[in-house]
């Protein structure tokens, strides 16, 4: 050990060649905080304060604390510093995450000064939070008198988890996890079980922070190019020097071994359309610990070989069996607990067949061992893992978040930060082991599954009364407490409720707001530059070319117009798209097709998308040529066929894809029935986890033909279509007449022309240029025709209507949409307005006071629509009025210069957030399809930077001028939708639809 650096001693430094980085591992000598930095050239720096948080019950204490530490701290004693950061930082990621055994606080930025602002505010929040009692009541739970003066339970986390407990798939996973982790912390719900949350006291809540949030229990993950020493200095001076040494909490003990397999049964909420006579069956195994990359690679290999796609050996066997109608959505491994879990299950199973299913499952696995796994299935699995390791990816945040999650798997349990991090060296070892041991996979099946007695077979039964029973439990808790109230206690509780409301409505002073640092406009980085793109023609087919550093992965996209279809045909398109990912041909079975696509591509997907029209006439890609016209590509509906491939597989993959498209038969009616059930099950669960999107599809569909087509593809209209189609073949294979419709759609697709998108390195593009011409010769450019847009205009039109969707959900969702035509010349301004409205009035009225888990804006300038929506909302109809009143308040709000600078900085963050090469390619392609040029994008950014306070008022005024034209929708229980008077006054009429 050398000299201390700002109180830290360097434990080691390692080269990480696969990441082009150095790994620096250090420990703060006085406090014990451990730091690991992946130091490289990436300007997008990320930090993550991580704490092992072992909850010994289901009160949700770790989850409530995760919410609460961000509600004010010693040096930032504001009402909600987190929200202020979200609306005045150029962050590229900002969040907090609760896992079953840890709580993590990550954030990232591409601007060093902004990064240190985030690091210091987050550090103050986790180490010195105020966590006052009002925060606990707001974020966790409280007793509250409702509008009828009746006592009820309220709280943000409580409502979030009530929503979680309305989701069949989510609860089935929780029960499966608990089935093999009995007598450990993993048997509990770290998020909180709704009827258990009210047993958590404020004293226990504060005690949990004291126990787990000392630096001795902190693992700080860093990533990026800011020098480690510079960050150490800030950490030591701002936080660590204030602490005395302490003993870390006990490490999480091993999960007790189960001597024999067990059978268990549980009940979950039934979604609308679910068959009450059927259940879910899942067998879960406890595998080795997740603390080494080698263990993880073995589990990932087993998952990919057995269950990687529908044509994988075990997936195929399950789908061909008569035990269920669909595969369990979480089949495979879960690696974020102390041990890896492995799930194999089905849904739509006949009740009482759990032992028969287990016997079938084990006999099938034994057959794989005896007959051997086909080498091509193993090669496909290895290709899939190699894709995951090689591809430059970015999801909802930077790839460094994935590296953080990998590192913490071992680090949080006492291993070094690299033990579970370095996937690529472990993968190379795995490939070498398979090469020297041809029975490697079969031995994994035997060891991890067949010889592993630590397993549980779980039967999960849908219960129509589940949500009502849980609501009754919560009501009973409130009623029991209300009976204990004396008159004085009741008055005291009412007073506390008033005080909390006053606290929630408080406005932070300018002096407090100034405590949260932010960048000035002059400090903002320049926007991301546009990528270079060219167009070339293969015969008549246009191809957009994006040469980018993709780490030698090639991307192909075929865009086929579908707006020349009728509305009836459009409803079939999502099912058609799903079927096209793996259906039979004239010579191959569907599982042979699925296996070949899995071997040749890293992913093969088909989806339906819609584009609008910004009315920008000069699009650079269309200049200096006359082969492709603007109206042939802009503002249309598309079927997108996407594939990605390794360089050596480009030609065979292209050959197979085009041959497959030409010969797809859609004649395997059992396969079509299975796909219909899968699609229906996915959509049946949508109200529980994506109700806000369904409500937005509904409201916007009445204001725009493009959004009406979205409703056909993805909204309530699609749910009802799938249920009706399923009902027609519930006791038989997919009807021949319906299969003929899919064949007809396919024939029409093949004659609709196409637009091609190619992305990759120069060498990748050269191979594409050689592989594509034989397949594109004879094909056409996108065929003209927007019949679908014309037809939807006659079926979807403005109604100024509030649409109600009853459901069995415990918490609801709301959307309100305004037509918004007058800011087309100042696009960019409404991005600032939307950011402020989301993180300001909507957050305060609906999230903080109302107790909803989320409230946000959804501006769509291309369609001239401005929407607001709520998520897991205990009072969706009240939120309708709160949305409109929030916008009304903005019309007279005073926005001074400091406030505007903060808001502009926050809204500007989306223009500098880095993208992966494929994201850059896809973004440019989508802009082209919507008729947006780079000049317009830069103009919008300049409008954003020039936004004035008067522009904010003007946005509100323009929306309010359309108040008589708004569309609203609410999804909730009968109780939540019963009192409509407050919301109905904003609409010309109201309609209650059938439950979804």
UniProtKB/TrEMBL annotation:
Keywords attached to this entry: Hydrolase
SMART domains: M16C_associated
Domain of life: Bacteria
InterPro entries given in the database record: Metalloenz_LuxS/M16 (IPR011249), Pept_M16_N (IPR011765), Peptidase_M16_C (IPR007863), Peptidase_M16C_assoc (IPR013578), PreP_C (IPR055130)
GO biological process, one term: protein processing
Keyword Hydrolase in record: yes
One GO molecular-function entry: metal ion binding
EC number in record: 3.4.24.-
Ranges for domain Peptidase M16C associated: 460-725
Record-given protein name: Peptidase M16
Taxonomic source organism: Treponema phagedenis
Species lineage: Bacteria, Pseudomonadati, Spirochaetota, Spirochaetia, Spirochaetales
């Amino acid at each position: 050990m050398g000299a201390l650096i700002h109180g830290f001693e360097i434990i080691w430094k390692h080269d990480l060649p696969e990441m082009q980085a150095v790994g620096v591992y250090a420990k703060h000598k006085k406090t014990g905080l451990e730091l690991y930095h992946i130091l490289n050239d990436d300007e997008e720096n990320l930090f993550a304060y991580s704490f092992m948080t072992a909850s010994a019950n289901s009160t949700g204490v770790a989850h409530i604390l995760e919410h609460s530490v961000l509600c004010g701290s010693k040096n930032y004693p504001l009402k909600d510093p987190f929200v202020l950061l979200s609306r005045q930082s150029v962050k590229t990621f900002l969040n907090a995450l609760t896992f079953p055994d840890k709580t993590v606080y990550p954030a990232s930025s591409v601007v060093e000064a902004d990064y240190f602002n985030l690091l210091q505010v987050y550090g103050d929040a986790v180490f010195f939070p105020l966590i006052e009692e009002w925060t606990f009541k707001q974020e966790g739970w409280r007793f509250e008198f409702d509008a009828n003066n009746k006592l009820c339970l309220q709280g943000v986390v409580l409502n979030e988890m009530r929503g979680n407990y309305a989701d069949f798939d989510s609860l089935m996973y929780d029960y499966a996890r608990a089935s093999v982790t009995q007598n450990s912390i993993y048997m509990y719900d770290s998020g909180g079980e709704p009827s258990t949350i009210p047993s958590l006291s404020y004293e226990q809540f504060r005690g949990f922070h004291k126990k787990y949030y000392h630096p001795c229990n902190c693992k700080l993950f860093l990533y990026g190019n800011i020098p480690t020493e510079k960050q150490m200095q800030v950490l030591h001076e701002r936080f660590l020097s204030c602490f005395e040494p302490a003993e870390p909490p006990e490490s999480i003990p091993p999960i007790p071994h189960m001597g024999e397999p067990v059978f268990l049964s549980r009940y979950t909420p039934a979604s609308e359309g679910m068959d009450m006579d059927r259940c879910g069956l899942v067998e879960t195994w406890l595998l080795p610990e997740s603390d080494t990359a080698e263990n993880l690679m073995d589990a990932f290999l087993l998952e990919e070989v057995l269950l990687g796609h529908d044509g994988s050996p075990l997936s195929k066997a399950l789908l061909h069996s008569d035990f269920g109608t669909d595969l369990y959505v979480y089949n495979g491994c879960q690696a974020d607990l102390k041990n890896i879990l492995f799930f194999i299950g089905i849904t739509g199973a006949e009740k009482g067949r759990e032992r028969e299913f287990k016997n079938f499952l084990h006999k099938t696995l034994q057959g794989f061992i005896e007959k051997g796994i086909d080498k091509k299935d193993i090669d496909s699995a290895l290709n899939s893992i190699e894709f995951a390791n090689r591809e430059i990816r970015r999801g909802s945040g930077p790839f460094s978040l994935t590296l953080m999650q990998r590192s913490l798997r071992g680090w949080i349990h006492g291993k070094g930060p690299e033990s579970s991090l370095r996937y690529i060296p472990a993968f190379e070892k795995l490939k070498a082991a398979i090469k020297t041991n041809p029975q490697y996979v079969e031995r994994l099946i035997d060891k991890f599954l067949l010889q592993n007695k630590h397993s549980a077979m779980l039967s999960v039964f849908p219960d129509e009364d589940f949500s009502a029973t849980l609501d009754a439990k919560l009501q009973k808790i409130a009623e029991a407490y209300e009976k204990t109230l004396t008159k004085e206690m009741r008055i005291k509780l009412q007073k506390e409720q008033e005080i909390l409301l006053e606290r929630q409505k408080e406005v932070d002073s300018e002096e407090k707001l100034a405590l949260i640092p932010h960048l000035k406009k002059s400090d903002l980085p320049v926007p991301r530059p546009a990528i270079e793109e060219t167009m070339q023609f293969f015969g008549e087919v246009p191809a957009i070319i994006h040469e980018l550093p993709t780490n030698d992965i090639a991307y192909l996209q075929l865009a086929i117009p579908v707006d020349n279809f009728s509305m009836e045909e459009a409803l079939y398109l999502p099912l058609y798209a799903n079927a096209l990912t793996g259906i039979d041909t004239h010579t191959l079975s569907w599982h042979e097709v699925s296996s070949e696509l899995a071997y040749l591509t890293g992913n093969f997907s088909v989806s339906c998308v819609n584009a609008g029209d910004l009315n920008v006439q000069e699009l650079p890609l269309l200049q200096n040529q006359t082969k492709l016209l603007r109206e042939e590509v802009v503002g249309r509906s598309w079927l997108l066929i996407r594939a990605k491939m390794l360089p050596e597989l480009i030609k065979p993959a292209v050959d197979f894809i085009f041959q497959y498209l030409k010969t797809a038969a859609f004649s395997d009616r059992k396969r079509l029935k299975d796909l219909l059930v899968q699609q229906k099950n996915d959509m049946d669960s949508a109200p529980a986890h994506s109700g806000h999107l369904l409500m937005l599809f509904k409201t916007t569909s009445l204001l725009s033909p493009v959004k009406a087509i979205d409703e056909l593809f993805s909204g309530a209209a699609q749910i009802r279509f799938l249920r009706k189609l399923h009902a027609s073949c519930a006791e038989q294979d997919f009807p021949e007449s319906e299969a003929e419709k899919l064949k007809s759609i396919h024939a029409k697709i093949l004659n609709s022309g196409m637009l091609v998108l190619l992305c990759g390195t120069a060498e990748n593009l050269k191979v594409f240029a050689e592989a594509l011409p034989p397949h594109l010769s004879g094909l056409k450019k996108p065929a003209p025709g927007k019949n679908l847009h014309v037809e939807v205009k006659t079926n979807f039109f403005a109604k100024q209507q509030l649409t109600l969707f009853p459901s069995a959900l415990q918490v609801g969702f709301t959307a309100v949409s305004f037509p918004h035509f007058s800011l087309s010349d100042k696009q960019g301004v409404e991005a600032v307005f939307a950011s402020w409205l989301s993180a300001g009035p909507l957050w305060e009225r609906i999230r903080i006071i109302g107790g909803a888990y989320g409230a946000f804006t959804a501006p769509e300038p291309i369609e001239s629509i401005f929407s607001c929506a709520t998520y897991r909302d205990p009072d969706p109809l009240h939120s309708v009025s709160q949305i409109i009143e929030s916008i009304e308040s903005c019309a007279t709000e005073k926005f001074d210069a400091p406030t505007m600078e903060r808001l502009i900085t926050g809204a500007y963050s989306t223009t500098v957030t880095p993208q992966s090469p494929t994201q850059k390619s896809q973004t440019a392609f989508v802009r082209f399809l919507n008729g947006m040029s780079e000049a317009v994008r830069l103009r919008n950014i300049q409008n954003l930077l020039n936004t004035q306070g008067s522009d904010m008022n003007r946005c509100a005024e323009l929306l309010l001028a359309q108040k008589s034209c708004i569309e609203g929708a609410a999804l909730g229980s009968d109780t939540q939708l019963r009192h409509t008077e407050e919301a109905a006054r904003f609409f010309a009429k109201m309609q209650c639809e059938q439950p979804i």
